[in-house]
Amino acid sequence: RRALMTSQLATTVRNTIGGGFRLGVDAMDQGFMALSDVVRGNKTASEGFRDMMSTSRYFFNQKEARVMQDIFSDQMPAEAQKLFFSAASAESRVGSTTFLGKVGNALNVANTFSDGLFKRAMFSSTLDRRLRETQGRSLNDVVAAGEFNMIDKDIIKEAIDESLYFAYQKPPEG
If phi over 0 gives left and psi between -120 and 50 gives alpha, with beta otherwise, what is residue 138? Predict the structure, then answer.
């Protein structure tokens, strides 16, 4: 049932357009925070610009974002499954042997693809920002050192939560 609702082309288009707007809002939000940090002397202008463009950078460089997803999936499969396995896919897989389950899976491809683009970008961006903030190293530096599995679990949780929130998939708290 959920797969059939999210598989409608109009829903996919709305979600993709909304995600595009959120990329802009994220850049403005990060830009204002970075400007504040630069004025207070907490960051250089270059560091602030990098924060501001981080999500867009990973969105438009899906090859790099996909590598981060693959490393995440290899190192922390249970956490990766929570992020990259949609509720609609889960529901339709339960009945995937039925005709409607198979139709739901087939029709949900576009929405799942769109969600994946945004979730990969936000996940990688959040990790990169937090690692530079807490360790002074970029996500690429951590991966190059073979230390992805040593990233603090709270940072991973924050990146997952931000990604689900960005894609309108974060469950309500409480």
Answer: beta
Distance of CA 77 to the CA centre of its chain: 16
* Strand stretches in the chain, DSSP E: none
pLDDT digits (tens, 9 = 90+) for 55-69: 999 999 999 999 999
Cβ atoms of 75 and 81 closer than 8 Å: no
Joined tokens for residue 137: 């190293």
Q: Which residues contact 151 (CB under 8 A, 6 or more apart)?
A: 127, 131, 142
Report which residue type is found at 61.
Answer: N
* Per-residue burial over 4-31, b = 16 or more CB atoms within 10 Å of its CB, e = otherwise: eebbeeeebeebbeebeebbeebbeebe
Could you give the CA distance from residue 137 to residue 140 in angstroms, rounded to a whole number? 8
d(CA 165, CA 171): 8
